[in-house]
Amino acid sequence: MDIILEPAGRNTAAAVACAALYADSLDLYDDPLLLILPADHHIENNSAFVSAVARSISVASQGLLMTFGIEPTVAHTGYGYLQQGAELGGHVFKVDGFIEKPDAAMAQAYLDKGGVME
């Protein structure tokens, strides 16, 4: 496994393009999968994260983009919310919508509704 780090913030798209070109240049796979982590989140439960990534591989191999979310426990205006859609298998779900940093009332409404993830 190779890890490519961006030494200075330039733009997520440029970093992803660099990683994609590098992966393609290796000629190890016909269509390599990339795990793009454009933030330095603290992940407390490493085994749950690794399991989520592993479950996503078969779906990502079908040409779909994947995103990861957590179920919110409090309404928060500093995060985006994913609207969970139909299950694709293995606890992987379609995303029916995304709401970027809602106001407090809307964040609470999403939390109350359920099926919405931070």
Task: Please render the helix and strand layout as text.
Blueprint: H1 12-25, H2 46-60, E1 81-89, E2 92-99, H3 104-113, E3 116-117
Antiparallel strand pairs: 1-2, 1-3
Tell me about this structure.
The protein is an alpha+beta fold. The protein has a domain at 64-117. Helix content is 33%, strand content 16%. The protein contains 3 helices and 3 strands, in the order ααββαβ. It has a 3-stranded antiparallel sheet. The chain starts with 11 loop residues before the first helix and ends with a strand.
Short description:
The protein is α+β, with helices and mostly antiparallel strands.
Properties at a glance:
118 residues, alpha+beta, 16% strand, globular
